[in-house]
Design brief:
heterodimer; A: six-stranded mixed β-sheet; four-stranded antiparallel β-sheet; globular; B: mainly alpha; MetI-like fold; two-stranded antiparallel ribbon; two-stranded antiparallel sheet; 4 strands
């Protein structure tokens, strides 16, 4: 459990992450994912260095920074996707809903159910659209065809792709366009009803039109899910997010409300980065 | 390197490539064309009345009334042959001893040649072996036998420097002046009326059991045995191979033991099949005693061990070729590792795994050496599914070898050998073809 001391400490500083116009949304704005002195190593290499951060529930948090700064690594640490890399280990604490993500008795399968992820490249399974969406619910024991259909419809509607695919649910998902595939992936993640949605550069493989659709989608989902999005595109970060984290060489340089970070960055390094003096 | 040299190099390489493909295609033609043409001849041929008699007596097939009328018309012409033979036999009795001795052996040869053509003559005791109960069943064989009757084959060994040369002497000259002399022109001109050749489609070649050591074809026990052995091998090897591949790719930690296991697997793939045959005898039959003696079970297990490395390798490659993103997607949805393997990775790898499996199936169907000591017998009837644990079985691969080299009448059974080879090649080809089709269909389904 998170200690009461650190919690109050965070509570005091939390307001700086919130955009002025959206202080509370449906009881959101609580600490959801909390990192404290959290480091990630690949073998000897320290990819993420002692990051302490507080990600608030039902808000959109963007992570920006130059390539190789550890932003994706940090994101993937939250639902333990880094476990796939054998040499990867962590130190410090990372709490999700007050529970240690890397705890000895943490069930990573349950964690990933609550912390969904959408990847850089659209990666639908080579199955039908229906089976793609129903994959998660089926995994978690849902077999009632009618209920599955409801979930599929609801998820696809949430991901704003229902109108485009409702008449070909039995067709292979790989037949969709890249943008549609990515929204399908979002729908697939939403179908297991996660609390957190991790988006790892979700638009980097898409054209501008599809990117706009994904951004609209993020706007739609804001307020219902805690969303974290890694992006290279600073305009995107400023458009979609409530708060922004800037990583540089594994260090969390600055974490502030998006409007503040982009207009009045505290750290000179952040300023250099957002004004494009280095990348 | 200047551009001219580069172009010449490119062109010459293309030429060499195309050339080697053409050479390969020609070599393949040289092998396949005789197999196909002769193999088809095992089923489609010009059959004689003797063939129809054989079908009637051994398999109760054919139109009895029509056959009876055919036999009657054939016998009308044969009667004259019997008459000539009878007359000559009487003449032989009355000859003076020296002349009699000279003619007796020649007459015996002639009589045997006629028996070979027309079957047992009146007054002969019924032969024990079925092959001697009938004359020539195939017209092209009958023509050969007719030549044997008309001409005596002799060898010219006068020049000891070179091999003896065969030459033919007309028998009718040898019997000039005797009452047997008219036989030869009569046989020559009336052979068709005695044997009544007509175009025959003998599907029984494939679907019958063999009569008298494959003398008249009948390779169903072999086809069924091959099927049982190959399927049995797959039953053991396929699940085991896929599980091993999953272990190697998903669970094994890289290390000394793992790399040893992998290289052992690769080495196993290169072990000669006869070694697997000896191993099967020593291990499955003598040590484990899976059966008293040779059995389909022991043969299948031996074949399974032989094809296992190939299946493991193919499955490994197929699993490794599945994009990592599928794995990530599945795990990120809260799937367990095992579930990810079962519902995402294996289905995506299925085309590759199946291809490896079917190629191995083809290999299992075609291998001879592993089943010599463990499962194969040269002659036998088709066994039931319940007998696979205890009975050996004939199988195409082994019987092709047996018929071509060990059969007592190998030279007379070329058409049966070719028929078997054709059947085996067709089975293996069909298996591979089905693998290609299956793969294409699954891939298409996956690509959408």
């Amino acid at each position: 459990m998170i200690t009461s001391e650190s919690f109050t400490e965070k509570k005091a500083t939390r307001d700086i992450y919130l955009p002025p116009e959206r202080k509370t949304v449906d009881g959101g704005g609580e600490s959801h994912v909390v990192a404290k002195d959290f480091s990630i190593y690949y073998g000897e290499f320290e990819a993420v260095k002692k990051v302490s951060a507080d990600i608030l529930s039902r808000y959109v948090t963007a992570i920006i920074g130059p390539s190789g700064c550890g932003k994706s690594t940090f994101l993937r640490a939250i639902n333990r996707m880094n476990d796939l890399i054998p040499s990867c280990r962590t130190s410090g604490s990372l709490l999700f809903d007050g529970e240690d993500v890397y705890g000895k008795y943490t069930d990573e399968v349950l964690l990933r159910k609550k912390v969904g992820m959408v990847f850089q490249k659209p990666n639908p399974f080579p199955k039908s659209i229906f089976d793609n969406i129903a994959y998660g619910p089926r995994l978690h024991g849902m077999s009632d065809k009618k209920k599955l259909m409801e979930i599929v419809e609801r998820s696809l509607k949430k991901a704003a792709i229902w109108d485009e695919v409702c008449d070909r649910l039995d067709k292979n998902a790989l037949g969709l366009s890249g943008g549609q595939q990515q929204r399908l992936c979002v729908a697939r993640t939403l179908a297991v009803e996660p609390e957190v949605l991790l988006l790892d550069e979700p638009t980097s493989a898409l054209d501008p039109k599809a990117t706009a659709k994904i951004e609209d989608l993020i706007q739609e989902l804001r307020g219902s899910y805690t969303i974290m999005i890694v992006t290279h595109n600073m305009q995107q970060a400023s458009r979609v997010s409530d708060s922004t984290m800037f990583f540089y060489e594994g260090v969390l340089v600055e974490h502030a409300a998006t409007a503040q970070l982009f207009t009045n960055p505290k750290d000179p390094m952040t300023e250099d980065y957002i004004t494009g003096r280095f990348s | 390197m200047n551009i001219g040299t580069r172009k010449i190099l490119d062109r010459s390489f293309t030429a060499v490539g195309i050339g080697s493909i053409i050479v390969m295609a020609l070599a393949l033609m040289v092998v396949v064309v005789p197999i196909v043409s002769n193999g088809i001849g095992a089923v489609f041929f010009t059959g004689t009345v003797e063939h129809r008699k054989m079908l009637r007596n051994e398999f109760q097939r054919g139109d009895t009334q029509h056959l009876a009328s055919e036999v009657a018309s054939s016998e009308r012409y044969r009667a004259r042959v019997y008459e000539i033979l009878g007359t000559f036999e009487k003449e032989l009795e009355g000859m003076e001893p020296a002349l009699k001795r000279q003619y007796t052996s020649k007459y015996a040869q002639t009589r045997t040649a006629i028996q070979a053509l027309l079957g047992p003559l009146p007054g002969d005791t019924t032969p024990m072996l079925t092959r001697f109960k009938y004359g020539q069943t195939r017209w092209e064989k009958a023509e050969e036998k007719l030549h044997d009757l008309l001409y005596e084959s002799k060898w010219d060994n006068s020049n000891s420097e070179i091999m003896g040369k065969e030459y033919f002497v007309s028998r009718s000259n040898a019997f000039k002046g005797t009452s047997l002399a008219p036989l030869f022109p009569y046989m020559k001109s009336n052979i068709e009326k005695m044997l009544l050749p007509e175009f025959t489609v003998y599907w029984g070649f494939i679907t019958d059991s063999s009569v008298d050591s494959h003398f008249f074809g009948g390779i169903w026990p072999e086809i069924q045995g091959t099927f049982f052995l190959a399927m049995g091998a797959m039953l053991f090897a396929f699940p085991l191979g896929v599980i091993a591949a999953v272990y190697f790719t998903e669970y094994a930690r890289p290390g000394f033991l793992n790399s040893m296991l992998r290289s052992a697997n690769s080495t196993l793939a290169g072990v000669p099949s006869i070694v697997f045959g000896m191993f099967g005898l020593a291990f499955f039959i003598n040590t484990l005693k899976v059966s008293e003696s040779k059995s389909v079970l022991a043969g299948s297990l031996t074949l399974a061990i032989m094809i296992l490395p190939t299946i493991i390798r193919a499955a490994e490659e197929a699993i490794l070729a599945v994009p990592k993103t599928y794995r990530e997607a599945s795990l990120s949805l809260g799937s367990t590792k095992w579930n990810t393997i079962a519902t995402v990775i294996l289905p995506a790898a299925l085309p590759g795994i199946l291809t490896g499996g079917v190629i191995s199936l083809g290999r299992a169907a075609g291998e001879t050496a592993p089943i010599i000591f463990t499962a194969a017998v040269s002659v036998g009837s088709a066994i039931g599914l319940a007998d696979v644990f205890s009975s050996p079985t004939p199988a195409l691969s082994w019987n092709i070898y047996n018929l071509a080299s060990e059969h007592e009448a190998a030279a007379q059974l070329r058409h049966v050998q070719y028929g078997m080879v054709f059947a085996l090649v067709t089975i293996v080809l069909l298996l591979n073809l089905s693998a290609i089709v299956l793969r294409a269909r699954i891939s298409k389904k996956m690509k959408g």
